[in-house]
Amino acid sequence: MDVSPANPHNQPSPRNTSLLLVEDHKNLAQAVGAYLESSGFTMDYAYDGLCALHLAATQRYDAIILDITLPGGIDGLEICRRLRKDARLSTPILMLTARDQLQDKLDGFQRGADDYLVKPFEMPELEARINALVRRERGELDESVYQIHDLTFNTNTMQVMRQGRIIQLSPTCLRILRILMRESPNLVTREQLEHELWGELIPDSDTLRSHLYKLRKKIDKPFAVPLLETQSGIGYRLIEPN
């Protein structure tokens, strides 16, 4: 197993990505954590089933790496089942285990796992699988052009246009717009936006409001039909006009 953080990474990881690693072998957990942290991931750790359930239910993660064999009377399969059925959690889950039989894999997928990686494994493959799960959950795999009404955002060229006019946006406003267009017509809470933009290092409460004011001024104010909707105290969304 390749555990060296110095190895070249195959691809950039999604920004501000937080992971929960559930693994009872602390040396392996530390090696995996060191490698993934060197790629920019933020890591939390659980060494038994009860701790894993508590963290997964009370904290927000972009993906969970879950061993099957765990101490404490609750194994990874049961954790996965409870998170899916009881907690209604949709967070991507990757099973990381020494169990390599087909039935073991089928059991994992039946409980709600999204991917299954057998030990021993190579660190770059684990990273690539996590990247794919996170991007899929965020809707970033296949979309290159988002469109809502007459507003378009080409994520390959990073060009934003409305009614044929190019709109110049700051890097932060571009990221906010991409999140809102990706999630549209669903509401995006302030907490979700802050987490994707800044991870754990959230600035003061006026910073997000200031960026959203600038974004609205660019994409809505010059046009007759507003697209950016604010739900006071909750969040924001981009919607098609009636």
TrEMBL record:
Keyword terms: DNA-binding, Phosphoprotein, Transcription, Transcription regulation, Two-component regulatory system
Signal peptide extent: none
Name recorded for this polypeptide: Response regulator transcription factor
SUPFAM superfamilies tied to this protein: C-terminal effector domain of the bipartite response regulators, CheY-like
Modified residues (4-aspartylphosphate): 67
Stretches assigned to the OmpR/PhoB-type domain: 143-240
PANTHER family, per the entry: REGULATOR OF RPOS (PTHR48111)
Gene Ontology CC: one annotated term: cytosol
Keyword rRNA processing: no
UniProt record, GO biological process: regulation of DNA-templated transcription
Pfam families membership: Response_reg, Trans_reg_C
DNA-binding annotation, residue ranges on this chain: 143-240
Keyword Isomerase in record: no
PROSITE patterns assigned to the protein according to its UniProt record, in alphabetical order: OMPR_PHOB, RESPONSE_REGULATORY
Residues covered by the Response regulatory domain: 18-134
Taxon lineage: Bacteria, Pseudomonadati, Pseudomonadota, Gammaproteobacteria, Methylococcales
Organism: Methylotuvimicrobium buryatense (Methylomicrobium buryatense)
A GO term, aspect molecular function: transcription cis-regulatory region binding
